[in-house]
Amino acid sequence: MAIEHAILVSLLERPGSGYELARRFERSIGYFWTATHQQIYRVLKRMENDGWVEALVVPQHGRPDKKQYSVADLGRAALTSWLHDPIEPETVRHDLAVKIRGAAFDDPSALIREVERHRQAHADRLAHYLAGEERDFGRRTDSGPYGPDDAERELQHAVLRGGIAYERMMIAWLDDVLATLHRFRDDHFRDDRFRADAPSADPSSADRAAR
Amino acid sequence: MAIEHAILVSLLERPGSGYELARRFERSIGYFWTATHQQIYRVLKRMENDGWVEALVVPQHGRPDKKQYSVADLGRAALTSWLHDPIEPETVRHDLAVKIRGAAFDDPSALIREVERHRQAHADRLAHYLAGEERDFGRRTDSGPYGPDDAERELQHAVLRGGIAYERMMIAWLDDVLATLHRFRDDHFRDDRFRADAPSADPSSADRAAR
DNA sequence: CCCCTCATGTAAGTGGTTACATGATTTA
DNA sequence: TAAATCATGTAACCACTTACATGAGGGG
């Protein structure tokens, strides 16, 4: 529904080839919208047919030619129209939340490891975002109202701050979940229904586990 | 990839018909996983064929018969196996973030209204979650280690706390975005390139907008 | 010599949405 | 009598992923 528009925004920020777009979708714009190169090439072709973008074949020495795409008037109009069209606040899909509720019907130990892995991934992403923020938006030199060229930067920064806030929220929440899972495992989980793969716990916890 | 598992968890929490599942996917489990009734019926049929769930036709007076689904052993095993399988931390899709970066190439006024709408929707959802929390998890009566039947509740509560944290984060971030957009509009956006649909602003702001 | 990067694509399959369809009962 | 709720489905389509395919050049 909107990968076209993400591509339009990215091409307005800077024209580029399908390959370059695919790389951007691994970082930057890809932090809040994913796309594989296969999908990008397909959509780009459709957008070219519809006159939304124009391709300029750029011969390169020692490398395959690339098609440099830029936004055409029709594409710009399509973007404007989309920007003015209200969209519904999207509903998230959280596999992990399903797993957490599912943990009530399973040994929580495996899920604790899984949640720890996710917590680590979010901490890594946060560090990555913060490094990018320092690099791209650190120590602003100006003061007073910013000029016309700063708007793009400012808005990119606002989006990045959203990513940072999201990762911080996730880390705090996963810590909360881990505490809940630990209580579940220590205080409640004690029968052997699910113990097929778990090595036997130490005797003290087995004692505590008396029904 | 996982709607089957969301259905399994929901049916383990309480058996029900496809219709009832569809209603649950509008609330509760639907807060972090959406599904329409069409999809649910289709998946449910496949799950029945695979022996993951069992259907019991319940005749009702004055209403159409319903198929009461419950989880079979094979389904339970499939869920356990999925719970033990690591999943990648999912990448979010945020249309709104694309729009915000796109706002650099358009009149920000329309986007301000859009962001305000989204802020309102998230505030509403937060209020809804908080009411549900009070209703379902308010004033816990027990103290000390909770019993075996509380695990399901505790984990549901942990997931709900995640929803609450998410909405709070979004509201704070959208306030941040609104501040950025207002600065953009007031300090920077002043030429008439995009003014096709915007009624002329008041003279004082037009004065400030002198290049 | 093998792998990585650059560069572009096709084909097949899965997952999910939207539109259409039916029909009885309860509530306003 | 019109609309909403309960209840189940089919069909067509669109979005997206995964696997496969090619080929040149550079670095270890």
From TrEMBL, chains A, B:
<dbReference type="InterPro" id="IPR036388">
    <property type="entry name" value="WH-like_DNA-bd_sf"/>
</dbReference>
<feature type="domain" description="Transcription regulator PadR N-terminal">
    <location>
        <begin position="7"/>
        <end position="80"/>
    </location>
</feature>
<dbReference type="InterPro" id="IPR036390">
    <property type="entry name" value="WH_DNA-bd_sf"/>
</dbReference>
<dbReference type="InterPro" id="IPR018309">
    <property type="entry name" value="Tscrpt_reg_PadR_C"/>
</dbReference>
<protein>
    <submittedName>
        <fullName>PadR family transcriptional regulator</fullName>
    </submittedName>
</protein>
<feature type="domain" description="Transcription regulator PadR C-terminal">
    <location>
        <begin position="92"/>
        <end position="181"/>
    </location>
</feature>
<dbReference type="InterPro" id="IPR005149">
    <property type="entry name" value="Tscrpt_reg_PadR_N"/>
</dbReference>
<dbReference type="Pfam" id="PF03551">
    <property type="entry name" value="PadR"/>
</dbReference>
<dbReference type="Pfam" id="PF10400">
    <property type="entry name" value="Vir_act_alpha_C"/>
</dbReference>
